[in-house]
C-alpha cells in the first residue's frame, strides 16, 4: 500500500512536467513573430494592374532612347549636306553621343544603388529633354556634337528604369514581360522614321528633333505614378517606405501582403565597382561586359550600316554615291533619303519585334545563357550573308532579320544582367555593362560609316567575328537565372 502511494505522486509529477513543457512550446509558437522578405511580398502580391501601369510607363523609356538613337541615322544625311561633312565627321557625332552615354552610365549605376533608381531615371530624363531641345538650335557642327553628347549623358540613366521594372516583377513573369519592351523601342524607331519622311523634306531636321521630344515631356509627367523600388528602400534601411509601397501595390492589385513583419538586412556597402570583380562575380562580369559590347556594336552597326547602304546605294557594293565638293573643296556625300529609303528603313525596323515570341519561348524553355549563345551565333552568320550581292528586296529581308536578331541579343543580355546581380549592386552592374556597350556603340560608326565607303566586306566582317567570339564566351557564364529569385544581397 505504501509503495502504491509513492508511485502515484511520482506519476503525477512526471505528467505535470510534460504538460508544462507542452504548454511552454505552444506558447512559444503562438508568440513567435511571423516575418517575410520583399521577394515573398512581390511573389504573394503577384501580377496585376500595378504591373501593367509599370510596364507601360517604364517601358516607354525605351521609346525615348530609341528616338534619340534613330535620330542619328535619319539626321545624318541632312547635317552632312548642311555643314559639308566628311565621313569621319558624321561618325564622330555618334561616337560623342555614346561617349557621354558611356562615362555617365558608370555614375548613374553608382547613384542608383546609393540614392535610388527613381531619382536617377527622372533626373536623366529632364537632362536629356533639355539638351535635346537645345540641339535643334545648334548653329554649327561643333555645337551640334557637344549638345548631342550631353543628350547621351541623359540617355545613360534610362537603363535604371529597366532595373526598377525588373525589381517589381514576380519571377515567373520576367521572362515574358521584359522582352516585350522591344515593342516600345519599335514605336520610338518607327516614329522617328515616319517623322523624318514627313518633316525633314519640308521643315528640316531641326523641327524633327523638336517634335521628337514630346514623348519625354509626357513621361516626365507620368513618372509620379511610379514609386521607388521597394528592394532598394529595404536595402538602404527605409523599411517603412518599402512597406507603404508594397501596401499600395497590393491594394492596386487587389491582393494582400504576407502575414507578419517585413524583415531584410540593411546593407551599408552598396554600389561599389569592386564588388563586380569579387570571385563570385568576376567571370560573370567580364563575360557580360564583352556581351554588352557586342550587342551594342552589332545593333548600332546594323542601324548605321543600313543607313549607309541606302544613302549610297551600295546594294552590291559597287556604287559609292554622288560625291559633291563644298565651297571650300571639302568632299561630302550629299544624297538625301528618298521615300523608298524611308520605306526600307521602316520595314527593317519592324524586325525589332519579329523574333519577340521566339525570344520569349527560348528564354523560358532553353534558359538565358543558351538563348544568348544561339542568337549571337546566328547574328554573326547573317552579317556574313549581308556581303552577298543581292537585289533591293533581298537587302531589305537581310536587314529585317538582322534587326530582329540584334534586338533579341539586347533583350536577353538586359534580362540576364538585371537578374544575375543582387539588389546591392544591380544598378552599378547594369551601369558598367551599359558603359561597355557604349564602347561598342562608339566603335560601330567608324566601321559601319567610314570603312563602308572603302569596302562593304571589310566593314561587315568585324561584326561577324565579334558575334562568333561572344557566342563562345556566353556559353561559359557560370550562373543560369531562369526561374531564380532576385538576390537581395551577395
UniProtKB/TrEMBL annotation:
PROSITE patterns xrefs: MFS (PS50850)
Keywords: Membrane, Transmembrane, Transmembrane helix, Transport
Superkingdom classification of source: Eukaryota
Subcellular location(s) per record: Membrane
Keyword Membrane among record annotations: yes
Main location group: membrane
Chain segments annotated as transmembrane: 52-76, 88-111, 118-137, 176-201, 286-305, 345-366, 378-402, 456-477
Domain Major facilitator superfamily (MFS) profile: 54-482
Transmembrane helix keyword on record: yes
Membrane association type: Multi-pass membrane protein
InterPro entries, per database record: MFS (IPR011701), MFS_dom (IPR020846), MFS_sugar_transport-like (IPR005828), MFS_trans_sf (IPR036259)
Record-stated family: Belongs to the major facilitator superfamily.
Name the UniProt record assigns to this protein: Transporter SVOPL
Species per Swiss-Prot/TrEMBL record: Huso huso (Beluga)
Taxon lineage: Eukaryota, Metazoa, Chordata, Craniata, Vertebrata
Amino acid at each position: 500500500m505504501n509503495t502504491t502511494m509513492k508511485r502515484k505522486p511520482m506519476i503525477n509529477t512526471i505528467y505535470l512536467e510534460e504538460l508544462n513543457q507542452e504548454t511552454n512550446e505552444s506558447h512559444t509558437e503562438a508568440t513567435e513573430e511571423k516575418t517575410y522578405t520583399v521577394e515573398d511580398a512581390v511573389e504573394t502580391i503577384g501580377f496585376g494592374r500595378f504591373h501593367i501601369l509599370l510596364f507601360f510607363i517604364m517601358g516607354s523609356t525605351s521609346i525615348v532612347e530609341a528616338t534619340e538613337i534613330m535620330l542619328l541615322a535619319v539626321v545624318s544625311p541632312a547635317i552632312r549636306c548642311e555643314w559639308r561633312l566628311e565621313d569621319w565627321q558624321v561618325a564622330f557625332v555618334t561616337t560623342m553621343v555614346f561617349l557621354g552615354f558611356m562615362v555617365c552610365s558608370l555614375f548613374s549605376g553608382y547613384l542608383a544603388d546609393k540614392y535610388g533608381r527613381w531619382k536617377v531615371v527622372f533626373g536623366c530624363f529632364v537632362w536629356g529633354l533639355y539638351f535635346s531641345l537645345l540641339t535643334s538650335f545648334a548653329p554649327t557642327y561643333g555645337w551640334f556634337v557637344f549638345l548631342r553628347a550631353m543628350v547621351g549623358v541623359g540617355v545613360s540613366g534610362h537603363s535604371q528604369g529597366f532595373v526598377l521594372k525588373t525589381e517589381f516583377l514576380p519571377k515567373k513573369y520576367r521572362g515574358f514581360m521584359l522582352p516585350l519592351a522591344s515593342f516600345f523601342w519599335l514605336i520610338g524607331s518607327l516614329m522617328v522614321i515616319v517623322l523624318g519622311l514627313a518633316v525633314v523634306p519640308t521643315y528640316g531636321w531641326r523641327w524633327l528633333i523638336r517634335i521628337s521630344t514630346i514623348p519625354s515631356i509626357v513621361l516626365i509627367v507620368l513618372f509620379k505614378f511610379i514609386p521607388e523600388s521597394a528592394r532598394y528602400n529595404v536595402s538602404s534601411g527605409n523599411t517603412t517606405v518599402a512597406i507603404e509601397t508594397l501596401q499600395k501595390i497590393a491594394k492596386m492589385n487587389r491582393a494582400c501582403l504576407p502575414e507578419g513583419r517585413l524583415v531584410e538586412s540593411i546593407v551599408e556597402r552598396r554600389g561599389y565597382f569592386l564588388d563586380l570583380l569579387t570571385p563570385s562575380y568576376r567571370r560573370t562580369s567580364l563575360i557580360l561586359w564583352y556581351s554588352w559590347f557586342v550587342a551594342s556594336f552589332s545593333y548600332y552597326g546594323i542601324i548605321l550600316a543600313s543607313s549607309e547602304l541606302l544613302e549610297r546605294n551600295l546594294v552590291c557594293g559597287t556604287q559609292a554615291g554622288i560625291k559633291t565638293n563644298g565651297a571650300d573643296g571639302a568632299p561630302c556625300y550629299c544624297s538625301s533619303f528618298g521615300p523608298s529609303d524611308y520605306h526600307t528603313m521602316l520595314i527593317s525596323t519592324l524586325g525589332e519585334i519579329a523574333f519577340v515570341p521566339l525570344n520569349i519561348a527560348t528564354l523560358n524553355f532553353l534558359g538565358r545563357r543558351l538563348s544568348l549563345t544561339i542568337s549571337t551565333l546566328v547574328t554573326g552568320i547573317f552579317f556574313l550573308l549581308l556581303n552577298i550581292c543581292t537585289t533591293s528586296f533581298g537587302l531589305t529581308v537581310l536587314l529585317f532579320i538582322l534587326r530582329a536578331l540584334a534586338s533579341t541579343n539586347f533583350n536577353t543580355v538586359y534580362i540576364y544582367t538585371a537578374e544575375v546581380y543582387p539588389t546591392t549592386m544591380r544598378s552599378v552592374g547594369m551601369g558598367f555593362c551599359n558603359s561597355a556597350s557604349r564602347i561598342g556603340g562608339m566603335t560601330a560608326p567608324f566601321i559601319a560609316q567610314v570603312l563602308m565607303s572603302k569596302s562593304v566586306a571589310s566593314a561587315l566582317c568585324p561584326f561577324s567575328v565579334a558575334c562568333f567570339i561572344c557566342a563562345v564566351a556566353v556559353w561559359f557564364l557560370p550562373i543560369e537565372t531562369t526561374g531564380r529569385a532576385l538576390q537581395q544581397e551577395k
